[in-house]
Amino acid sequence: MSSEQIQLAILCPVAAKNLIAKDENFIIYGEMIKNGTGIIYRKNNPIKKVAFANGRIEQLQMIENILGKNVWVKSAGANGLPYLLENNSVDAIVTDYGRYLKMGSNYEYLISKNNYVTHVLVINKNLLGNKKFNSFIKTYNSYIKTIKKREKKEWMPIYTPLELKD
Question: What pTM did the predictor assign?
Answer without folding.
Answer: 0.77
